[in-house]
Amino acid sequence: MIDHLALAIGHGLLAIAMLRLVMRPALDEDPLIGAIRKQAQGNRKATSAAGRSAARRARADSEAAPREDA
Protein backbone atom coordinates (compact mmCIF):
# COMPACT_ATOMS: atom_id res chain seq x y z
CA MET A 1 0.00 0.00 0.00
CA ILE A 2 2.80 2.43 0.87
CA ASP A 3 4.59 1.61 -2.39
CA HIS A 4 1.49 2.50 -4.40
CA LEU A 5 1.07 5.75 -2.49
CA ALA A 6 4.73 6.69 -3.01
CA LEU A 7 4.49 5.95 -6.74
CA ALA A 8 1.24 7.91 -7.05
CA ILE A 9 2.68 10.96 -5.25
CA GLY A 10 5.91 10.88 -7.26
CA HIS A 11 4.17 10.51 -10.61
CA GLY A 12 1.54 13.07 -9.67
CA LEU A 13 4.19 15.67 -8.88
CA LEU A 14 6.00 14.91 -12.13
CA ALA A 15 2.73 15.31 -14.05
CA ILE A 16 2.04 18.66 -12.38
CA ALA A 17 5.56 19.87 -13.19
CA MET A 18 5.22 18.74 -16.80
CA LEU A 19 1.85 20.50 -17.20
CA ARG A 20 3.24 23.72 -15.75
CA LEU A 21 6.15 23.62 -18.20
CA VAL A 22 3.96 22.81 -21.21
CA MET A 23 1.44 25.55 -20.42
CA ARG A 24 4.07 28.33 -20.33
CA PRO A 25 3.35 31.09 -22.88
CA ALA A 26 7.01 31.49 -23.85
CA LEU A 27 7.27 27.85 -24.87
CA ASP A 28 6.16 28.52 -28.45
CA GLU A 29 8.33 31.58 -28.96
CA ASP A 30 11.86 31.14 -30.26
CA PRO A 31 13.86 34.38 -30.19
CA LEU A 32 16.24 33.13 -32.88
CA ILE A 33 13.46 32.76 -35.43
CA GLY A 34 13.00 36.55 -35.61
CA ALA A 35 16.73 37.10 -36.06
CA ILE A 36 16.90 34.47 -38.80
CA ARG A 37 13.91 36.01 -40.59
CA LYS A 38 15.48 39.49 -40.50
CA GLN A 39 18.78 38.13 -41.77
CA ALA A 40 17.07 36.24 -44.60
CA GLN A 41 15.05 39.30 -45.55
CA GLY A 42 18.22 41.41 -45.60
CA ASN A 43 19.96 38.82 -47.76
CA ARG A 44 17.02 38.78 -50.16
CA LYS A 45 17.10 42.56 -50.46
CA ALA A 46 20.87 42.61 -50.93
CA THR A 47 20.72 40.21 -53.87
CA SER A 48 18.32 42.30 -55.93
CA ALA A 49 19.39 45.40 -57.81
CA ALA A 50 16.57 47.44 -56.30
CA GLY A 51 17.57 46.32 -52.83
CA ARG A 52 21.21 47.27 -53.38
CA SER A 53 20.15 50.68 -54.70
CA ALA A 54 17.86 51.26 -51.72
CA ALA A 55 20.63 50.32 -49.31
CA ARG A 56 23.04 52.65 -51.09
CA ARG A 57 20.53 55.52 -50.92
CA ALA A 58 19.89 54.86 -47.22
CA ARG A 59 23.63 54.96 -46.51
CA ALA A 60 24.03 58.16 -48.51
CA ASP A 61 21.10 59.78 -46.69
CA SER A 62 22.45 58.83 -43.28
CA GLU A 63 25.92 60.18 -44.15
CA ALA A 64 24.51 63.41 -45.57
CA ALA A 65 22.31 64.10 -42.55
CA PRO A 66 23.76 66.81 -40.33
CA ARG A 67 25.07 65.49 -37.06
CA GLU A 68 24.45 67.42 -33.90
CA ASP A 69 27.25 67.13 -31.38
CA ALA A 70 26.09 68.03 -27.90
What does this structure look like?
The chain is mainly alpha-helical and 70 residues long. It has one domain. The protein contains 3 helices and no strands. Helix 2 crosses helix 3. The N and C termini lie far apart (78 Å). The model has no long low-confidence stretch (mean pLDDT 82).
Provide the helix percentage.
over 70%
Largest sheet: none
- Sheet-strand content, in percent, reads under 5%
The span between the termini is 78 Å
| SSE run | HHH
Assembly status: single chain
Discrete helix count: 3
Rg (CA only): 27 Å
The count of domains is: 1
Uncertain residue segments: none
What overall geometry do the principal axes of the alpha carbons give? rod-shaped
